[in-house]
Design goal:
Helix content: 10-25%
Number of domains: 1
CATH topology: Thiol Ester Dehydrase, Chain A
Strand content: 35-45%
CATH architecture: Roll
Strand order of the largest sheet: 1-2-4-5-6-3
CATH class: Alpha Beta
CATH superfamily: Hotdog Thioesterase
Order of helices and strands: HHEEHEEEE
Oligomer: single chain
Shape: globular
Largest sheet: 6 strands, antiparallel
Structural class: alpha+beta
Number of strands: 6
Radius of gyration: 14 Å
C-alpha cells in the first residue's frame, strides 16, 4: 500500500472519535514513523489561552496508537495505550502542532514509542513516551 492510501485509511477511521473532535489529521508516514497535526485554537486551550497539556497528550496517544497499526500492517491488531508520560516544554497559542511517533521498541505484545510534538517552526513543544499493548483478533 502506498503512503497516500495509508494516510487516507488512517484518517478515515477517525470519524466520530476524539481525533475528529480535536481535528487531528495524519499527514505523513514512513518506514519507522507516523506524523499527525492538530490545530491550536480555543477548542484545545487551557483557561489562560495556551494549548492544554491534556490535548497534547491526546494527540500523542492518538498518533502512537495509530502508528502500531500502520507499522505493524496487521488488520487484526487491537491496540491500547497503557501508559503515557508527557513533558511540556513550551507554550503554543496558535497555528498547528505536529506529533511524530517513532518506535523505541516493537515487541509483539508491548511497544514503546517516543512522540515528539513540535510547532510550525519545528521547536519542541512536548516530548512524550507511550507504551502500547497489542493483542490480535482471531
Amino acid at each position: 500500500m502506498d503512503k497516500k492510501e495509508i494516510l487516507r485509511l488512517t484518517n478515515a477511521i477517525c470519524k466520530n472519535t476524539l481525533m475528529e473532535t480535536l481535528e487531528i489529521v495524519y499527514t505523513d508516514v514512513g518506514e519507522d514513523f507516523l506524523t499527525a497535526r492538530m490545530p491550536v485554537s480555543p477548542k484545545v486551550f487551557q483557561p489562560d489561552g495556551v494549548l492544554h497539556g491534556g490535548a497534547t497528550a491526546a494527540l500523542a496517544e492518538s498518533v502512537g496508537s495509530a502508528a502500531v497499526f500502520v507499522l505493524n500492517k496487521n488488520p487484526k491488531a487491537l491496540v491500547r495505550g497503557i501508559e503515557i508520560t508527557a513533558n511540556h516544554l513550551k507554550s503554543v497559542q496558535s497555528g498547528f502542532v505536529y506529533a511524530t511517533a517513532r518506535p523505541i521498541n516493537l515487541g509483539k505484545t508491548i511497544q514503546l514509542w517516543e512522540i515528539r510534538i513540535v510547532n510550525e517552526d519545528q521547536e519542541l513543544i512536548s516530548l512524550c513516551k507511550l507504551t502500547t499493548y497489542t493483542r490480535y483478533k482471531e
